[in-house]
Amino acid sequence: MTTLTLYARFAAHIDAVLDQLEDEGQLSVGLERKAVAVEPPREASHGDLATNAAMVLAKKAGTNPRALAGLIAPKLEALDEVAGVEVAGPGFINIRLDAGIWRDELRAILDDGGDYGRSSLGGSEKVNVEYVSANPTGPMHMGHCRGAVVGDALASLLEYAGYTVTREYYVNDAGSQVDTLARSAHLRYREALGEAIGEIPEGLYPGDYLKPVGEALAAEFGDRYVGAPKAEWLQLFKKKTVAAMLDLIRHDLGLLGIHHDIFASEAELQASGAVDRGLQTLRRKGLVYQGLLEAPKGETPEDWEPVELTLFRSTEFGDDQDRPLKKSDGSWTYFGADAAYHLQKAEKADHLINIWGADHAGTVKRVQAAVRALTDGRVDLDVKLVNMVRLFRAGEPIKMSKRAGNFVTLADVVREVGKDVVRFMMLTRRADAPLDFDFAKVVEASKDNPVFYVQY
């Protein structure tokens, strides 16, 4: 079902007015109108709706914005739904609606319920939205929360607008951090069998969340791997522990009402040969060569020893330097695996959207370059960067360290303040701006708390 909202209806009215001006010879035929928007005016006193049509079309039409606005405004004012139109500033058009329009709109909202505003704009184009994708080394904490909510809200909006959406989580289970996780679980396994393990050694994950994993391993395997060489248990414990962590992650995200369609494994990607296929695809296009990287900024020639690497010509696609696909020891770089992963997603989608932490800003251009190269530009990659959340309790900052095991879990926060409060607060500011979350403030019954104010 598609409901034509006020904004969509007036976008159509403005389109019709522009068509009339073309027919009358007062506007050049075929001007690109994509940038024309209908939105609330910046101040309520200016009217009910505003359009930038004259502002964005005037230059292309060979006129000035106020002159073009003067042609558009009378035609809009002639509509039965319009009480008045005013040209403001350099050429904005403010529209005041007849009071009956608002009554009709309220009836439509009540009649359509949850389908109000639903659209077929997306035309069922396939969009893959990848979000969260945290390392599977522990439960979700508040550092993951904002990206989770932003990604889930965006996916829901796209579905509402008529796109076919796949929600995806990329499991980084091929790196050294997962070996560390398995070793940490082995320690808890020995503890579960009665061994006094003392203080957790530096470099391992100390969190109590691994105790149930150790107990489950002890129940399944007994003391078979207590004194066994690491080579005998590492892969097995890695697989079992990652599976347990993913169960925990799914549960914690579920507390926020977030559910992914796909959990894609980096380890499985590499084992399937997909990374090799991605490299061969780039090779066939002449985009891979053996070469030397320039020394990083700040490094002197004495400090830098150039090594020949397998490089991708990412500078041909807007990146600032070519990027290594393999390390000097022949193993894949993270970028090499990431490029193949995006090819795998692109084979089933028309558009890719990634929700990343702001600390990944430096890798955006190279991955976008890889997607353009691998798909010949058929698939676009849009990366939304999400800034950090600073936690406070009654104005006092809360420090977190996942490595030290003293972090605030997402589950604890949801249990304390509620799912809706968490989701709302994560969306109150632009995703790329820092966000403060104060446990006391978000449950405060005052106008200073946006959650309470909106509910009121």
Question: What does it look like?
Answer:
The chain has 456 residues and is of the alpha/beta class. Helix content is 42%, strand content 16%. It contains 15 helices and 15 strands. It has helices at residues 6-23, 53-61, 65-77, 99-112, 142-160, 176-192, 211-221, 230-255, 266-271, 274-284, 334-346, 364-375, 410-417, 419-426, 450-455; strands at residues 38-39, 49-51, 82-88, 92-97, 126-130, 164-171, 262-265, 288-292, 308-312, 323-324, 351-357, 380-386, 389-393, 396-397, 435-438. The strands form four sheets. A five-stranded parallel β-sheet has the order 7-6-5-11-12, sandwiched between helices.
Question: What does the overall shape look like?
Answer: globular
User: Biggest sheet: strands, sense, closure?
Assistant: 5 strands, parallel
Q: What's the quaternary structure here?
A: single chain
Strand content: 15-25%
Structural class: alpha/beta
Number of helices: 15
| β-strand number | 15
Percent helix range:
40-55%
Order of helices and strands: HEEHHEEHEHEHHHEHHEEEHEHEEEHHEH
Mean pLDDT: 92
* Unreliable stretches covering 5 or more consecutive residues: none
Please tell me how large the radius of gyration is. Answer: 28 Å
